[in-house]
Design a protein that fits this description.
Immunoglobulin-like, glycoprotein, five-stranded antiparallel β-sheet, Fc receptor-like protein 5 isoform X3, mainly beta, rod-shaped, transmembrane helix, Ig-like_dom, 672 residues
Length: 672
């Protein structure tokens, strides 16, 4: 007996398991080059010749590459004969290279030959070959060092198991899509692959639902089509693949049927009706229907703000602290791995509260003057329109104006003296109101035309009297500067810091007869009064003057007596019927005493006798002249005696001899 000491590891080199492949690799595996050996052994005697063939499944061969020990050979046909040991593989066209085949050419006298490939459930024949046949008849086979009870040159193995090689791996059940939606079609695939060396074997496939044979569907097609899967079909599925004597079952596979999300609803939750800068708002997005988990995303003008996942359904929220830039369009999106759905767009208008307004006075000049038109302009720097502006004077509302598109507003004011005071404005929108700082206006009143009044101690002003000039403007903003003029020559000035009039006093001399006026000025406007004439009479002099004055008094008395006699005579004549009831040329005299005041204010006019002395050319006779002149009855102030005129005034002359004195002229003759 010749023991066969060749170990079985050489056989098991070709019995290694072929790992299972997924559907994603099935097409790649099908396009892998395949190598075959003829005769189909792995061990040969030295000098033997082995034919290797390269195959391309399902296609004609165009280009072949052969490799020996990783080195590219020059041979390029689909068959290749070798007679040396080593690892060989081939590559057909651009397919993946085939697996390596190890060939062993031995110089031993005895070799163990095994098939090139062995698969599960195959019948395997092992041969013990001698290089030179002898009469030896006792051959012993060993497995893992253990003696096998067998006789002959061949050893048979029935139904080879996985420890030898697999015919095909355990199938894997796949579903496309893996998470189908309710009502959508689904394709199930029982994924496995026969060894290329057993491509002639026909596999059979069965699909089971809930592991129930009653729901089993079998065919030679590795795929099963479900036209419309429903939510209630979310259950366990299996598949089986096999031949008449080999069946393998996949692991259970759960198909999660998804309900796609419906269109979500976006809700803006604000603390008040109008969203205002600084408010915290909540964006809430919710899809009424859809399989969880649902991913919600929030957008502002198509820019993503944030996202939130609802693992068990329901809605999601996103909080936002508002600024002015957050005005615009908002929407949300919901998805659960299927087609995403977007909400309807919602527009948010963020109201910006008005800032403190500024009040500006626009005047035609530096000082505000009665009669000017002043523009009050109120404006805020920030604030959402429309903005309502209101204008106030000492807390009294003057009026309002609206700026529909922002900006400021104005209010025009025609100034009077009562418009002096404090002004402010108020700006408001739906977010609130703000007031400006107060601005003061001092309305200047131009001075009116002043009235000049002369006040003297008696009716006739004589040299030495003190005369008071009073100048007063009835209206005008203080301080008022008064200036006094004599024949357009400035006498002096006086200021009224709080309004009212001003006085100017002077002692009368002979040169003070003439026209007087005054001027009022409050730095804005100057006005001059009417002129008032002052007559200085009773000039003081030497002794002759005193005598003349005494004679003048006597003459005046005589004239008065004569006038009285004339009036009495007229009265008697009227009583007797010789004269008419009235004399149109006669005017009654004013019986009221005359005040020593002179003014330029108009008054009622009456006749008034005026007396004056007239010297003759010779200087020896003094005549007394009596004239009738008009007198102004006081209306607002005292009357003013006017210069007598020679228009129809009766004149009475009385000759008076002048007594001679030592002070008289030398040719003066004393009376007889």
């Amino acid at each position: 007996m010749v023991p066969v000491f060749m170990p079985l590891w050489a056989i098991l080199l070709v019995l290694g398991p072929v790992p299972g492949q997924s559907v994603s690799r099935q097409f790649t595996a099908a396009l892998k080059s395949r190598i075959s050996v003829q005769p189909p052994w792995t061990n040969y005697f030295s000098g033997d010749t082995v034919t290797l063939s390269c195959h391309k499944p399902g296609f004609l061969l165009y280009q072949i590459k052969w490799y020996h020990g990783g080195k590219l050979l020059s041979h390029n046909t689909n068959t290749f004969q070798v007679n040396e040991s080593g690892n060989f593989k081939c590559q057909a066209d651009n397919l993946l290279p085939s697996k390596s085949v190890h060939l062993e050419f031995s110089n031993a006298q005895l070799i163990l030959q095994a098939p090139f490939e062995v698969f599960e459930r195959d019948s395997v024949v092992l041969k013990c070959q001698e290089k030179k046949r002898t009469s030896r008849s006792n051959i012993t086979f060993y497995r893992n060092g253990q003696h096998l009870p067998h006789q002959g040159t061949e050893y048979h193995i029935q139904n080879a198991g996985l420890q030898h090689n697999e015919l095909f791996p355990r199938p894997v059940l796949l579903a496309r899509p893996s998470q189908p939606t309710d009502g959508s079609p689904v394709n199930l695939t029982c994924d496995t692959q026969l060894s290329p060396q057993k491509s002639n074997v026909q596999l059979k496939f069965c699909f089971l639902k809930d592991n129930l044979i009653s729901r089993q569907v079998c065919s030679q097609d590795p795929e099963y089509h479900i036209p419309a899967i429903r939510k209630e079909d979310s259950t366990s599925y299996r598949c089986k693949a096999g031949t008449s004597n080999i069946w393998k079952t996949s692991r259970p596979f759960q198909i999660p049927v998804q309900i796609p999300v419906s269109q979500p609803t976006l809700t803006l939750r604000t603390p008040r009706t109008q969203a205002v800068v600084g408010d915290m708002i909540e964006l809430h997005c919710e899809a009424p229907r859809g399989s969880p988990p649902i991913l919600y995303q929030f957008y502002h003008e198509n820019i993503i703000l944030g996202r939130h996942t609802a693992p068990s359904g329901g809605g999601a929220s996103f909080n936002l602290s508002l600024t002015a830039e957050h005005s615009g369009n908002y929407l949300c999106e919901a998805t659960n791995g299927q087609e995403a759905q977007r909400s309807v767009t919602i527009t948010l208008n963020v109201i910006v509260p008005v800032s403190h307004p500024g009040l500006t006075l626009r005047m035609p000049r530096t000082q505000a003057v009665v009669g000017d038109t002043v523009e009050l302009h109120c404006e805020v720097l920030t604030g959402s329109p429309p903005i309502q502006y209101q204008f106030y004077h000492e807390n009294v509302n003057l009026g309002n104006s609206s700026a529909l598109s922002g900006g400021g507003a104005s209010f025009n004011l025609f100034l009077t003296e009562e418009h002096s005071g404090n002004y402010f404005c108020e700006a408001s929108n739906v977010a609130g109101a703000q007031q400006s700082e107060a601005v003061s206006i001092k309305v200047i009143v131009p001075v009116s035309r002043p009235v000049l009044t002369l006040r003297a101690p008696k009716a006739q002003v004589v040299v030495g009297d003190v005369v008071e000039l009073l100048c007063e403007a009835l209206s005008g903003s203080p301080p008022i500067l008064y200036q006094f003029y004599y024949e357009n020559i400035t006498l002096g000035n006086s200021s009224a810091p709080f309004g009212g009039g001003a006085f100017f006093n002077f002692s009368v001399t002979r040169e003070h007869s003439g026209n007087y006026s005054c001027e009022a000025n409050n730095r804005l406007w100057a006005q001059q009064s009417d002129k008032v004439t002052l007559f200085v009479t009773g000039l003081t002099g030497d002794r002759s003057g005193s005598v003349a004055a005494g004679l003048t008094g006597v003459l005046l008395s005589m004239v008065v007596l004569a006038a009285g006699a004339l009036l009495f005579h007229c009265w008697l004549s009227r009583k007797a019927g010789r004269m008419p009831a009235s004399d149109p040329t006669r005017r009654p005299s004013d019986s009221e005493p005359q005040e020593p005041t002179y003014s330029n204010v108009s008054g009622w006019v009456e006749l008034q006798p005026v007396y004056s002395n007239v010297n003759s050319l010779g200087g020896d006779v003094v005549y007394s002249e009596v004239r009738r002149c008009t007198k102004e009855r006081p209306y607002a102030v005292a009357s003013v005696p006017l210069v007598p005129e020679n228009k129809g005034s009766p004149v009475i002359y009385t000759e008076v001899k002048v007594a001679c004195t030592s002070a008289s002229k030398p040719n003066c003759q004393p009376p007889q």
